[in-house]
Amino acid sequence: MDGGFLNYRKNNKFNPYKFYKHCYTEKLDLNVRERKEGLSKLDFGDSYLMIEDNGVLSTSEKNRSQNPMVIRIEVDYFEETVKELEQRKVKVEVHTFNWGIIGVIIDPEGNRIEKKY
């Protein structure tokens, strides 16, 4: 499962630059705030998302013991957001709960990202 993302290996090693550029800037529409050796910062509301270059690539979603963190982004227009992501070839799995609706995305490292309405 790659969620519609590309393979981010270079010489059998994880290539973080290709990963964040394709996954977070092109697919999830986050702008690069800063890039320097070893890390990248992407605009994330009034803050930033920092991606360090020492991540471990996974072919499936990491379980909670491997990564207990979820990036959850609240959206006002859920259906439109899901359609836009799917047009960008991002796999979105929608779940409905009594407290809201989430669209689950798994990034190329196996990290869980959720869009919530």
UniProtKB/TrEMBL annotation:
One family name in Pfam for this protein: Glyoxalase
UniProt entry keywords in alphabetical sequence: Dioxygenase, Oxidoreductase
Domain Glyoxalase/fosfomycin resistance/dioxygenase: 22-114
The keyword Protein biosynthesis belongs to this UniProt entry's keyword annotation: no
Domain of life from the UniProt record: Bacteria
InterPro entries recorded: Glyas_Bleomycin-R_OHBP_Dase, Glyas_Fos-R_dOase_dom
MF term (GO), any: dioxygenase activity
Full protein name: Glyoxalase/bleomycin resistance/dioxygenase family protein
Species annotation: Paenibacillus ginsengarvi
Lineage: Bacteria, Bacillati, Bacillota, Bacilli, Bacillales
